[in-house]
Amino acid sequence: MTGSEKEDEVNMRVKRLGHVVLRVRELERSVRFYGEVLGLREVARYGGRMVFFSLGENHHDLALQEVGAGAPSPHPRSVGLYHVAFKVGDGIEELRAWRDHLERHGVPILGASDHRVSQALYVTDPDGIEIELYVDADPAVWRNDPSAVATIEPIDL
Known about the structure:
4 helices; 5-stranded mixed beta sheet; 4-stranded mixed beta sheet; 2,3-Dihydroxybiphenyl 1,2-Dioxygenase, domain 1
């Protein structure tokens, strides 16, 4: 490999996560959850089987694809998606407000964690896909100690 080729290899890296597509059983049920409960903005539909949502900065950040009511759930110990995380604010008070919002909408909260770099609530969508709703802590926490990212402590909201 030449010096130029090595330099090109060093510069080859993903710039950012573009979007996530989730397979769901019933499209409209999931559209209500992601649109009405989480507040994502619907921007397009395709063929009656897909809906696209934007958080505002990108043409779409999340898409839902309907696969039918009989689709099996993935086994919890299988390879694949664990959860999708959405930033919902910048402080613990905003996370508390989200807790109250979820409770008003009848969305059970599976857990709450302090990750040092963030604080989070965990819920599932109508198909059992785990969703993390989080607020970031001061970025100095992970800049000064990158291993802080691997912290899971209980949090009392």
